[in-house]
Write a structure and sequence with these properties.
This protein is of the alpha+beta class. It has helices at about 30-40, 45-55, 60-65, 95-105, 115-125, 195-200, 205-210, 260-265, and strands spanning about 1-5, 15-20, 20-25, 55-60, 70, 80-90, 140-145, 150, 155-160, 170-175, 180-190, 215, 220, 230-235, 240-250, 280, 300-305, 315-320. Strands 7-6-16-10-11-12-8 form a seven-stranded mixed sheet. Strands 1, 2, 3, 4, 5 and 13 form a six-stranded antiparallel sheet that branches. A hairpin with a 5-residue loop joins strand 1 (about 1-5) and strand 2. Helix 1 (about 30-40) packs across helix 2 (about 45-55).
């Protein structure tokens, strides 16, 4: 089941069920957030509530996308109540990459870089028994809901950025119930989008490199994540031609951690269980155009797709000007 948020021609918000190329409007709700919170309060699963509430009014997906009316598949009315976070060093990559990685981490632990030590911790302990905590992953903060972009919206990087590169990932989308319990609404394809040149200068700049916008959607996958997800990441030039393309895989079959372990190490903090909040949490990737020496230019477009998630996620790269951040004294 795939859900979408979008606006009608008059700007009114809607949430709908995507079936083939048509969006069936869900009646009685105008946001995924309201739908999810009502499912929690009624103690029924989201799919049940969607099936009971979906109506006969339809919109053509192509028309909604072409007119720029797509919204991120989950958001909060107050952007400050949406956390955007992620975990890294979680994916095993292709068979060749796996073999090379295992050779790198197979030696003396003291000779490994901090990144390889972290990766090895995940390989050795990232998939614990159900209901138990495994190895703690790398964790990072990206921002609040103000940085999340929908499909079709540009990803704007500051003019001081040294790079703007895609990271094709799966994101978990969550709401916190009135009882303080995290509830996973579903999953979405995302472009975590980072400044890899800044990060490469010094790994302690990782936090800086992640403070960028990101995108998720267009659709939200309700239910459990398939163990194997196959997709394709592309960079299109300003004329729309494919300049770089590479397959990527995700899902637990291709990860060194279980989703449950990554979720535990995020939601173990009381800060992240505040009733009413929304969380967008990226699960990592092993495929980057940056790793192949590609530098994406403003005006070019990122395209990330995986059949399990429906339509492709597309965002153009833009740049915005900044000024010296001077603080005023009171």
């Amino acid at each position: 089941m795939l859900l979408l948020q979008f606006t009608n021609e008059n700007g009114g918000r809607l949430v709908g069920l995507l079936q083939d190329d048509q969006i069936r409007v869900i009646e009685g709700y105008n946001t995924t957030y309201a739908l999810a919170q009502d499912a929690i309060r009624k103690r029924i699963n989201l799919a049940e509530l969607v099936n009971a509430s979906v109506g006969n009014t339809t919109h053509a997906y192509a028309d909604v996308a072409a007119s720029g009316r797509l919204l991120a598949p989950l958001d909060h009315a107050d952007e400050a109540h949406c956390y955007v976070t992620g975990t890294g060093l979680t994916h095993l990559g292709s068979a060749g990459a796996r073999d090379a990685m295992h050779k790198k981490i197979g030696g003396d632990a003291e000779s490994l870089s901090d990144s390889m030590k972290m990766f090895r911790l995940g390989v050795e302990g990232g998939k614990p028994a159900d209901g138990t905590a495994g190895a703690q992953p790398e964790w990072f903060y990206k921002g609040d809901g103000s940085i999340v972009r929908a499909g079709g919206q540009p990803l704007r990087m500051p003019d001081f950025a040294l790079d703007g590169g895609e990271e094709p990932e799966i994101a978990g989308l969550y709401v916190i119930g009135d009882d303080g319990q995290p509830y996973r609404v579903g999953y979405a394809i995302g472009n975590e989008f980072s400044d890899h040149v800044t990060e490469r200068q010094n790994y302690l700049y990782l936090a800086h490199s992640k403070l960028r916008v990101c995108s998720v959607g267009p659709a939200l996958l309700v239910g459990e994540l398939p163990a194997h997800i196959a997709g394709t990441s592309r960079v299109l030039d300003a004329a729309g031609n494919v300049r770089w393309e590479k397959a990527f895989v995700s899902g637990e079959d291709n990860m060194s951690h279980t989703i449950a372990n990554l979720e535990h190490h995020h939601f173990k903090y009381p800060l992240f269980k505040r009733p009413g909040d929304v969380h967008v949490h990226f699960f990592g990737t092993a495929t980057l155009s940056f790793a192949d020496g590609v530098s994406v230019a403003p005006g070019e477009t990122f395209e990330i797709e995986a059949p399990a998630f429906g339509p492709a996620l597309r965002n153009r790269l833009d740049v915005f000007p900044t000024e010296f951040a001077k603080v005023s004294t009171l």
